[in-house]
Design brief:
The chain has 159 residues and is mostly beta strands. It is 14% helix and 47% strand. The chain has a single domain (18-148), classed as Pnp Oxidase, Chain A. It has helices spanning 4-11, 59-64, 77-84; strands spanning 16-17, 19-25, 28-34, 37-42, 45-52, 66-71, 100-101, 109-110, 115-127, 130-142, 149-152, 155-158. Strand 11 (149-152) and strand 12 (155-158) form a beta hairpin. GO terms for molecular function: FMN binding; riboflavin reductase (NADPH) activity.
């Protein structure tokens, strides 16, 4: 078996677009900064997002039946840090930072994200340390066109 730290070091050289995946269920909202998300299909429009399965708070994504992917811009590093837990100075509700709305499903949509994809959860697959959320895109919103926020070599970059 491959040594996990060796694998993580190699993957740190893989650039990923920084996104906040969100959901809401029974009055509770959850948002997590991720880089493991991508398009699955354009007909029907489908995306996937990967979340750590060891965090019990991520179970809300399965229970809610919907999620949103919010693609961040280079000037949204502070928001990425808040939703990743890297910035512990924001206690309680992370959604007090940023301007949030909704489209179709009720998942929080970041108003000034580069693009937001509002999705109906179609399947959840647990693979090793992560749960993979597959979602049919029911709504899309665009924010201002700006440079994208990328994560590579364990740090933020812009593109």
């Amino acid at each position: 078996m491959l040594d996990p730290p060796l694998y993580r070091d190699a993957m740190s050289r893989y650039a990923g677009h920084v996104q906040i995946v969100t959901t809401a269920f029974e009055g509770e909202r959850r948002g997590v900064t991720i880089t493991a998300a991508c398009s699955v299909s354009d007909n029907p429009a489908m995306v996937l997002a990967c979340l750590n399965v060891s965090n019990p708070r991520n179970e809300i994504f399965r229970r809610s039946g919907h999620f949103a992917l919010n693609a961040l811009a280079a000037d949204q590093v502070a928001l990425a840090n808040i939703f990743s837990g890297r910035d512990p100075t924001i206690p309680g509700d992370r959604f007090t930072e940023g301007q949030w709305g909704e489209l179709v499903t009720g998942s929080p949509i970041l108003n000034d994200a580069l693009a937001s994809f509002d999705c109906r959860l179609t399947e959840v697959k647990v693979m090793a340390t992560h749960m993979i959320l597959f979602g049919e895109v029911l709504g899309i919103a665009y924010g201002p066109q700006k440079p994208a926020l990328i994560y590579m070599d364990r740090d933020y970059r812009s593109l």
